Every structure is written in structure tokens, then in C-alpha cells.
Amino acid sequence: MQKNPTDILQHHWGFKSFKGSQEKIINALLRNHDVLALMPTGGGKSLCYQIPALAKDGLCIVISPLVSLIQDQVQRLKKMNLKAMALTGRIGADELIDLLDNCQFGGYKFLYLSPERLQQSLVQERLQQIQISMVAIDEAHCVSQWGHDFRPAYLKCNILKKLAPGAPMIALTATTTKEVSQDIMTALELEDPLVFKDSLLRKNIVFHVKNTEDKLYQLRQLIGIESGSSIVYAGTRRATVEIAAHLKSKGINADFFHGGLVSYEKEQKLRAWLNNDIDTMTATSAFGMGVDKADVRKVVHYHIPDSLESYFQEVGRAGRDGLLAKAVLLTNEQDRLQAKKQFAATQPDVEYIKLCYKKLNAYFQIPYSEGQGQTFSFFFNDFCHRYGLNPLLTYNAMKILDQHSVISLSNAFAQKTTVQFMAKKQELFTYIENHRALEALIKTVLRTYGGIFDYETPINTLLIAKKISRPEKEIHAQFERLQKDGILEYNSAKSDIELTFLLPREDDKTINTFGQKVTHFNNVKKGKFEDMLAYIDNTSVCRSIFLLKYFGEKMKSPCGQCDVCLNKRKQPLSELKKIKTDVFELLEQHAMTSKELTNSLHYEESLIIRVLQELLDEEKITVNEKNQYGPYR
Ligand code: ADP
Ligand code: MG
Q1: Residue ranges, the chain, pLDDT below 50
Q2: 603: domain range?
Q3: Residues 74 and 162 in one domain
């Protein structure tokens, strides 16, 4: 029994009409066509599968990469009294059977799950028995190795074509490069898909690149100008913490978010930011993916992203409400050298992978042409230390060996050893008095890691071992003892890393089979990074035109608002000078906001803001916490 899509839209969502290609996509799915939907962030991709799912009988399967995304979507649907279920987190076999029973017989319309969950045989067996109306693969660019969010398990989502043979499949993403589209269609085995592409142009986002020696100062000025919700992306976890601390010390309502936080902290911080209890979040790149916050006014990049794809995804989180928003990239020469260095230091080449593989065989004493199928406990830090290997580079080399099925690493490989103190400081001192053997470890950990009383902190056990001159194994034993005594919470990643050799040892020959692929991959990544640098260096093409061109779209007229356009616009210099003098004279009398200035001076607001920015850059004026500008003293 099919219902009319427009009725569903109005009835359940309360929206008047469809946006962009939504209606065409919905109709294609209702006619059982496979679809590839390329739409910008905030373009309304979710409705494209949710509405046909409601129009059709049966269950719609949705694959999504992040737990937070899944939970957010399922909550929304539940609030609308629609039956949606999420399979996330640790679920025991019994519970999983119950949930799947419920899904099969309880009239559910949506089942959200991660690509990894889909690989469980229990799930696959059951899906074959359920009537499936449709399959949606959200954030489908995760199938692509050229993309920035590659997730190997996404490659196996094509199994859904076998589990639900009659159901149409829709793949959705905001990344629209040709390579990524092609990868999606091939990997998911879309059959003769209809491709819909909405323009990525986000008219309300103004792009700026700002070269500056003092990024913190510029950031402060930027965030200070008209407050509002902002994200500041930084390249490392440490930087997110430091930048947030700096902003806070200047009276800006900021906090930080990164992948190393424990889940309740992530939830808490995300909620505070969604509710605008926190204005500015400094964050690493995953923050904000798929989060539907309408009023983000600024997205600032404090470090250079690795590609324009990443950059565009991240800035896309600004201005979903259609109101003016700003995307600013702060940079300087030093930054760029640093980024280049970091890039080289994380991307192992074929020679390095060969070296790691040789060392692995030596480490586990595998003779030639043997080793296949053997499993070992793997002490990664010890391994790197023994052969003087760079841990980050080696970690990435291990991942490549794993991806190409030379070895297999247990999931725990990705986890870090973490520690959090549970005892109060006073209890701890008493404990130390009675357990002198553990004193050195406790004190070293406290000295090395700030905040370890407040949250679960990733630690480097090898570093601690070196500091107190004990073998690493003993450090683990000591932590285990402390955990037993209730002093701290200890999660050892090491104890359960397992490495299995999948091929007999053949050294270089093994690696040569995919060496070219690795080299090609490295070159593509390098090329993407160079495109990113070209965007930064560009002074002649409107920023929006530049970005859209990269994504294969033509835009006719320049935006007129980005730094390149503004520099080109031949505002009669004399007029700007006059405005600047007028503004400065007024501000010398008393501090004012940009609105107040516009009202008193009767110039166009954009011109006022432009001269304010210039005066800020020249450090002639500054802005206070009430967003008033005054002379710099
Ligand atoms: P995407 O996944 O493409 O980033 P979402 O599906 O999260 O975007 O939708 C973004 C926002 O747009 C949501 O708040 C959604 O409710 C809203 N939206 C989607 N379609 C429409 C429409 N036709 N009319 C009005 N708002 C819409
Ligand atoms: Mg989405």
C-alpha cells in the first residue's frame, strides 16, 4: 500500500515542499531503481530514503558509520512516532536475537546499523527472513579508499544486494568527485543507478583564507566578532585542548572535543554545544559529521586539512539554516612546512612497508615460507622500540599489511592503553605510604599526564617504563595491581592485540603484489594535499568558484564576498579610507558594536565590517566580550 510522498512529508515532517532532487530521488526509489544521491551537507539526504520507506511495506535497512549519527537519527524518528531500531554498542548474542525478533515481528520501519554489525552472521541470516523495502547506505564515500573516511567494512555492504535481492539500494554522500562516485557504484554493485546531483554551492557561506603570524590572536578576533555557534578544527587532540584553554582564558565560552574522550564526555560536550551552552568547540575532524545543528555561524580551520574533500565536508557544517556563515582558514608559512613534514611522517612508502614486514618476521622468528595461520600476542611498542621504528609510521604500515590481508590484527589494535585515577588525592597518598614499590609509577603517571583524575587518559606505557627504568611488562603488572586495589581504572590495549600471519613468509615478493597500489595511493593523497595548498595560495579565483570547480561544477559569477573577491573589488580607495577614519574617530569616543556603528554612520554594513576587520588586522582596534569595538590600548 503506497502513500503519497508529499502527504508523508507534510504529515510527518510538517514541511511544505521538497528541496533539490528529493522528490525525484523518492520517486525513483518507489519505482525500485537503485540511486546514487550526491547532495551537499544539510541538503536533506535522510528524507530521500525515509519517505519512500514509509510509503512502502517492509523494513528499511540503513547503514551508517557513526554511533552518534545512528542514535541521532533513530531518536528523531522515534519522536515522530515512527518505529526505528538501532543496533549499536556491545550487544550479546541473546539480546541480539531478541532485538532481531522484535524487528521482524514488531512492525519496525527502520533498522540502523554499522557496516561491521552487518558482517555478523546472526544479522545476515535474519535479514534474509525479513521483508526489506529498501537499503540506504549513508555517508557512502566511506567505501572509497581515495576518500578521507575510508572504512574497510563499507566495501562489504554489497552483501545487502544478496540478502535483499528485490529491494532498491540508495547510496548517499556529499562528496562528489568522480573517483568517489565511481568507487561507490562499483563497490556497492548498484544496478544501473540513477545519479542525482544537487549543486554543492552554499551561497550563504563566505570563504576566507587568512595568512597570519599570530593565529591565536586572529582566532580570538574572529570568534569575538558577533558571537554565535562556532567550530574550530585543529589537526591534533593536543591542539584542541590548548586552543580551547587559550580562548577560555580570554573570556570566550569555549570547550574542546576529540576522539580520545570517553563516550559520556563526548555526549555531554556535544549536547552542551547543541544547546548553545558552549559557543565555540575546538575539535578534531570527526566532530560535527552528520550532526544537524542549524545555526553554526563560523567554521575556522586552525591547521591545514589533508584535502579539499575534508575541508569542504567540515565547512559544510556551517550555516545549515541558510543564514550568513563564515569559513575561515588561518595559516602561515611555518604551518605549511609543518603540515608537509607531518604528511611525510605518516604515510609509509613501499620500502618502509617491506622493512616492517621483514622485522615482523624476525620479531616472531618466522622461517621462510612458513608462518601462515600462526597467531601471536603482539607487543607493538616493544616491537617499534627493538628495531628503532617510528610508531606512527609503523602503525600505518601495519594497517596497510592488514588491509591487504598479509596479516590480520585484532580490533584492539586501534585502541590505546588508558588510565583514570579513581582514588581521591588524600587516599592516594595514604596508599603510597603503604605501597612504596608502586610509588615511582604513580608519581610518574601523575607528573606526565595532566587531568588524569578527571578523565580516561591514553598513556604510553613504554615511555613510563623508560622513565622509571623498569621493563614494560612490569608496568602492566603494576597497573593491574593498582586497578585491583581500586586506585585506578586501567584499560590495557596491549594484552589482547593479536597478530595472525595470513600468508607464508616471502618477504619482498609478498609486498610487491600490492606495492603499486600503495604507491598510487600515496601519490593520490599527495596530490590531494597539493590541491589543498593550491586553494590556500590562490589569489585570483573566487574561493567558491575554486571549490566548486574542484568538485566538477561550474559557477558563473564570483561570490563577491570571499577574501579574493574583496581584494579584487575596486572599492574606491578614497571612500574606504573615509569610512575607516569615520569609524575610528567614533570608536575613539566610545566602544560600539558593528550594528551601532552602521546605525550612526549610514554606510552599508558590509563596508563597516570590512573596515573593522582591517582595523583589527592592523591592531588599531580590539573587540570586547560585549562585541563592542574600541581602540587598541
Ligand atoms: P544531510 O544528511 O543531507 O546533511 P539532513 O537529512 O540531516 O541533511 O537534513 C538537514 C536538515 O534539513 C534537517 O533538519 C531536515 O529536517 C531539513 N530538511 C530536509 N528536507 C527538507 C525539506 N524538504 N524542507 C525543509 N527542511 C528540510
Ligand atoms: Mg546525513
Answers
A1: 1, 494-495
A2: 573-631
A3: yes
Taking each helix axis from N to C end, the angle separating 508-537 and 333-346, rounded to the nearest 10 degrees, works out to: 160
| Coil, helix or strand at residue 431 | helix
Only one residue has cell 623508560, namely 466
CATH of the domain at 290: 3.40.50.300
CB 409 within 8 A of CB 465: no
Q: What is the pLDDT of residue 60?
A: 98
CA of 524 to the centre of ligand 2 (A): 26
Grid cell locating 410: 585484532
User: Among the three residues 491, 515, 550, which one is the final residue of a domain in this structure?
Assistant: 491
Contact 177, 551 (CB under 8 A): yes
Which atom in ligand 1 lies closest to the alpha carbon of residue 39? 3
Type of residue numbered 17:
S
Is the pTM higher than 0.85? The answer reads no
Domain's final residue, options 324, 340, 356:
340
Nearest-CA residue for ligand 1 atom 21 is 44
pLDDT at 495: 46
Q: Which one, of 629, 602, 606, 600, lies nearest residue 616 by Cα? A: 629
Q: What are phi and psi of 276, to 5 degrees?
A: 60, 25
3-state secondary structure string, 70-99? Answer: HHHHHHHHHHCCCCEEEECCCCCHHHHHHH
Phi/psi class of residue 421: alpha, beta or left (left: φ > 0; alpha: ψ in -120 to 50)?
Answer: beta
316 C-beta closer than 6 A to ligand 1: no
What does the block give as the cell for 269?
560536550
Q: How close is the Cα of 287 to the center of ligand 1, in Å?
A: 19
